[in-house]
Each structure stands twice: as C-alpha cells, then as structure tokens.
Model the fold of this input.
Amino acid sequence: MKQQANLIRAGQVIEHDGRRWTVLKQQIITPGKGGAFIQVEMRDLKSGNKTNERWRTADTVERLMTEEKEFTYSYSEGTNLVLMDTETYEQTHVPAELMGDAAPFLQDGMTLTVDLVEGEPVAIHLPGTVVLEVVEADPVVKGQTASSSYKPAKLSNGVKTQVPPFIESGERIVVRTEDASYVERAKG
Done:
C-alpha cells in the first residue's frame, strides 16, 4: 500500500530498496530554504541493521500491512523471548530486540501484542503500564512542595524515574512502559 512519506509513523513497516524495515523514529524537518523533508530512523527486519533515510514530504513509500496477535511471555532464552500463542498454546521464539527500550518492563506471564508481516514478527508492544516497586527514593527536601518537583527514584527492574515527594522506598507504583514515567500509587 503506497502512502506519502510525511505519514510515516514509528512502528510501521515499510519496504525500501527491496528490503523490509520497521520504523523506529521519524521527524519532519523544515529547513530555512526549500521544502520540508522527513528523516526516518529504521531497522532492517532481516539483518537488524539500523539506518537513517530522508524523503521529501511528497514522496511515496510502500507500507506493509501488519497483523496484530496476542502472546503471553513465558521466558527468555538467549537473545530470544519464548512466547505462547494465547489461542493455540504453541510456543514461538521472537528476537528480544524487537521490544527496544521497553525491555526492562517485561514481566513473567505478561500479555504482549506482536505485529506480524506475513507471519514474521516485526515489533513487540507491552501493555501501557506496569506495577513496579520503588527500591530507592531520595529523601524529601524540607521546604519542597508536592506540586513543585519530583525526586529521583530507582525501580525494582533497575530503571530510574521521577516520583512525587510522598513516594518512599518499598512502595509499589504504576509506571508507563513507553517512557518510565510515574502514573500513580498501585492499588492494593
């Protein structure tokens, strides 16, 4: 399916120079002179190599249609994740690198959405939020108001984030998987 280059979004799969690429990032750049162009960072599905490509916004690219399928994470084996198909209970090996920066948020038994192109996995999406324990939190600075600033904290998966001053070490919090940002205290 042809689409204009300025409609390229992260997570899409495109065909370029006879190869399939998954889009990691895109940015529209408007120089002082001349027309705008789109800068795209993408990864080759076969080799895993990354590259940057530029297109004029009016150029067209071939977008491949992806099919979404749900899997349950079982365990990791080397550089692969072993996932179980939620319908057939068959196990599938998928490269862990398809998760990108969200990898530390993977948890046992988690339901993942895998994007497939002609049956081949091209991207893994985690749930929007996860519950994690705060293992380190800086003490509150006297005179600091709750609305003014967050403080650094370390989560049980090793990721650092910012939390409100009232959150202490040992508390469980809800965190966004896309950017490790604090959402709220975990209930229960």
The chain is about 0% helix and 55% strand. The two ends are 47 Å apart (CA to CA).
